[in-house]
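Reviewer 2 asked us to include a model.

Predict the structure of this chain.
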Amino acid sequence: MSNAYYAPGDQRAAKVNDLFARIARRYDFINDLQSFGLHRLWKRRVVELAQIKPGSRALDLCCGTGDISFALARGGATTTGLDFSAQMLEVAANRSGKLKTPTFNSPHPVPTFIQGDAQELTFSENSFDIVTVGYGLRNLTSWERGLDEMWRVARPGARLIVLDFGKPANVLWRSLYFTHLKMSVPLMGWLFCGDASAYAYILESLKHYPAQLAVADKMRALKLKNVRVVNLLGGAMAINYGEKSE
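Predicted model (structure tokens):
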């Protein structure tokens, strides 16, 4: 049975936009539930791999409510978070506003959030020292185009980092994991968001996404250096890492 929020081809962006408009307000809460809070550790690992240095400029694509953007900024990077969902960006902007109130002024730089398409970035070539995407590459009409754009706007020596759902190599573990995505996660979506299809989408999108090994191959095709895959939870989640050649 098809998912209400998954569509191939040209309709993909509109469907995904509908999805995130629907779940934006509950997105962070349900992320904590479905990952048992582990997504916070995985995002922290992304920031460690980013190797932030004084003066670093970071771009966080498909930034959603801003978790990775805020973490990069706390590390000292001048950070831009980009997403095409106005509702998700509204949540990120509200979080940002709380860091700039008269009673609590964050000592760290606060990210700038903008609306845009990760497949057609308006930034110039060689603009950023760090380019990240967390749980977003899988949602693009063309994940390959998304990686092309990440490479284009990255400076020589920049770190490109992708965090997303993966496909475990172990057949038994993959079956158990996919069952969790098919049964437990949609149930959480129904209970706390009133829409099981919004979270059943995760499995549907993952079926059509070649996951960590293909992302690594694409990074190598882009001539990135030090390409590696960091498997998490036995490959149920994965971080792809590469550095743009000097």
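Residues 9-243 form a domain with the Rossmann fold fold (CATH 3.40.50.150). Residues 171-193 form the longest helix (23 residues). We have added this to the supplementary material.
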